[in-house]
Amino acid sequence: MNKSIISTGSKEATQAGVEILKAGGNAFDAAVAAVFTSMTSEFALTGAGGGGAMMIRKPDAEPVLYDFFVDTPPRTGKEKLDFFGVEVDFGDSTQTFHIGKGSAAVPGTLLGLVIVQEQFGVLPLPVVMEPAIKLAREGYVLNKKQAYIFKLLEPIFTHTKEGRELFCSNGKILSGGHRFVNLDFAEFLERVSWEGATSFYLGEYAELIAQTFGKEGLLNEKSMSLYHVAVRKPVMTSFMGTEVYSNPAPSVGGTLIIFLLQLLEKAKLKDININHIVEAMAVTNLARKDVCTNPNKEYQIEELLEDGIFNGNLVNFLSKCMESNDDLIKPSRGETTHVSVIDKDMNCASVTTTNGEGCGYILPGTGIMLNNMLGEEDLNPLGFHQWRHPMRLPTMVSPTIIMKDNLPFILLGSGGSNRIRSAIVQVILNYIVKGMGLDEAIISSRIHLEGKTLYCEPGVDFLTADLPEDITLHPFEEKNLFFGGVNAVTLTEGASDIRRGGTFEIVD
Length: 508
Prior knowledge:
Distance between the termini: 10 Å
Number of helices: 16
Structural class: alpha+beta
Strand order of the largest sheet: 10-3-2-14-13-1-24
Number of strands: 24
Largest sheet: 7 strands, antiparallel
Helix content: 25-40%
């Protein structure tokens, strides 16, 4: 292979990665550069105040997962928190998001990116971060998709005076054609590029976070100082002649992907159709609910793959499929983005980052809005603020690397909160089982089952008459960012999701 390929959620992030690759950087340099740039070009989707995970693979080595998702901070239970709901209008529906100082978890993205770059990159950090610094300083013109997300999150972005100053022009939220500039963030990134992430977790910025969030939130200098990046062995399964590696526990997304693929693999179905996929989603959802019952047990999702529990669910899945091949059995719209990079030496980086919807507060002098992960219902299924000790929240982010014959076969990941797993599974099935090209595999219409509601894009080939009476069908009129944003690369091609305006580029 003589080419490098990068796929991201915005043209600015893709261009940043391309610039670094052309400057002699490897896949890890390019991925870090792209993510830092996306903190401006996709401000509503990711940021230095959020969390994420990166799956990396060096040639002739096993994939490794760097987990830098958010942590729950220590608490006493006596705090009076700034924590409240904000209604967001999506057109076809409205949804309440929980924000405020009490919604901010301990961020990990900044430390994770710096550590990965220091350990695996080949260029100096200031060089890698320069595209991001330049974009934050000079700004970029919002396109329609970016402006749409700004408008969706207007109640959150304009919650404070600082937010209104950053995101508004003449008293109105920035719209398509307006330039978004974040000078404070440019200065912050420039400092980080020379000093590293230490001051954010142990120094001046940690003190600033404590001052800003400490009285009505849970973040303080101690909670920041305790944060660490975890290096984990990925969860893995064989599927249709490939090896699928994804984000392990305490993350839940990767395990759910592996669980569903194993159901389909071990069922030995003649043909995997849309009805089988829906049935597998239903079994997966129920299995997750059965094992994830303790908000203070970090690794309980691993129980899904134990023989006793898995085999029982496999029998359940098979019984549903045998009854009829045609039977089919309040999601969050969390904001996330993904970067996939493979370089000419076959270094691989698959990284997903998120800021939730943002907590509504800008950290003074930094241009950073911290996350609202403590207010994400999908990450807190048993209720908000229920943990008894600090722990890593069980994210859905699932950067994934698929190998075949000891070579990278496809790198992919997605934004989309609890739809991440559905999006990734369907792209894998389209690409591996149906033999679609990468672009078609990503563009194809998707479904997502949540509780008793089946969400679907136009073009999905099942009959509504086959739905059980207790299932509500929620059709979308067009393909929507609700169903994720998959960005993927292979050894020979790249593709990005039109649902979120992603781009890719091949570098000679």
